[in-house]
């Protein structure tokens, strides 16, 4: 069975989100260690904001795909 590109994108976003979540749990100020910047003075708040943004974009993409599929099932759209 061949998966559509959207499924691959969702799986990749989920993998990134899980990886960043684990890194944030183990070492909250990981951006300061990875990059020569300190956006939140070592509190880990910026990292949590990055995780929230990735989760929001992923959730919005999945909701959009579900909405388009529902419309297609009702015959409102000819392509998904």
Q: How are the elements arranged and paired?
A:
Blueprint: H1 5-26, H2 30-34, H3 45-73
Description:
The chain is an all-alpha fold and 80 residues long. It has one domain (5-73). The chain is built from three helices and no strands. The longest helix is centred in the C-terminal third of the chain and has 29 residues, at 45-73. The radius of gyration is 17 Å and the shape is elongated.
Short description:
With 80 residues, this protein is an all-alpha fold. The chain contains three helices and no strands.
List keywords for this structure.
80 residues, mainly alpha
- Uncertain spans: none
Helix and strand pattern:
HHH
Rounded to the nearest angstrom, the distance between the terminal CA atoms is 18 Å
Structural class by SSE content: mainly alpha
Mean pLDDT: 80
- Quaternary organisation: single chain
Shape category: elongated
């Amino acid at each position: 069975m061949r998966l559509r590109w959207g499924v691959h994108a969702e799986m990749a976003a989920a993998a990134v989100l899980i990886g960043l979540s684990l890194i944030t749990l183990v070492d909250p100020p990981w951006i300061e260690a990875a990059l020569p910047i300190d956006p939140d003075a070592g509190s880990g708040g910026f990292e949590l904001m990055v995780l929230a943004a990735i989760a929001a974009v992923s959730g919005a993409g999945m909701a959009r795909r579900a909405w388009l599929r529902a419309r297609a099932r009702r015959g409102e759209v000819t392509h998904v």
